[in-house]
Amino acid sequence: MVRIAIFVTILLVVLVYALRRGGGPERAMALILIAMALADQILHLFVPPRFSSIDAGHLAIDIAAAIATLVLALTAHRFWPMPAAVLQIFPLMAHVGKAMEISVHPVAYQTMQVAASWLLPPLLALATWRHLRRLRANGNDRSWRGWSRRSRPTTATR
């Protein structure tokens, strides 16, 4: 129970920091983490955690978080969302292993689902800090990739 309290405390501090001081991608990741935490709490109101079989509720949360983080990684003008997306995909591997009937002890299955989430708050804190450094150094920090024709470099091939 102490480890959960430590994680929640770290997560809350980082979320407030990212939401108040981060750029668009940092705030988007903070919102993804908030949505995950809320979905997890709502899930546990109705379904007790079980790790002896595939945990469909957590699988749904993990798929949604992985997709959201992958979209963030593809649209943000930052590098850090790529490792964040990988960290969101790791729990899916636990579900795949369990679905393939690989004999996974329930504690190992739970650990595989949860362990990567411990790395997300420090990554988000570092990303927010680096955003602030770029703002101080350059006066601005582009948040999103430009996909319009206007933002693409032009070529002189006419």
TrEMBL record:
Membrane spanning residue stretches: 28-47, 59-80, 107-129
Keywords assigned: Membrane, Transmembrane, Transmembrane helix
Protein name: Uncharacterized protein
